[in-house]
Specification:
Elements: H1 6-9, H2 16-26, E1 39-44, E2 49-53, H3 66-76, E3 82-88, H4 99-109, E4 114-117, E5 120-123, H5 124-127, H6 134-145
Helix pairs in contact: 3-4
Amino acid sequence: MTAPGPAATEPPGGWGPLLEAARDAMSRAYAPYSGYPVGAAARTDDGRIVTGCNVENASYGIGLCAECGLVSQLHATGGGRLTHFACVDGAGAALVPCGRCRQLLYEAGGPELLLRTPEGVRTLDAMLPQAFGAGHLTAQDAAGEA
């Protein structure tokens, strides 16, 4: 699955509010080392918009991507599932999540999560084919009991 049909790609209210929320979150990023602020925003299945920004650390490897903050906010504000996602750089241009963050988003939104990318709207399934998920752990547990 590469791109869903046009009617299925629009979140309630369109992509404008998500992009605005992502840009607002990006303006709060803490990126003193890379100078590369990132903001993310997503719509939830109950209509909320959750956001996140990257937070760097002097110990480079333990910085947090914007998606980490977004998924944390999702759970801190009541949980649910992500339905539409947008991520922007310091200039407000669309970005795609890194591999680690695609895995986080898979857990929070599943393969049908719609992502706004520089090349248009894509499903997470198209961006992370054959993803590892909770179902694999259940299958492993069942196989271990046999």
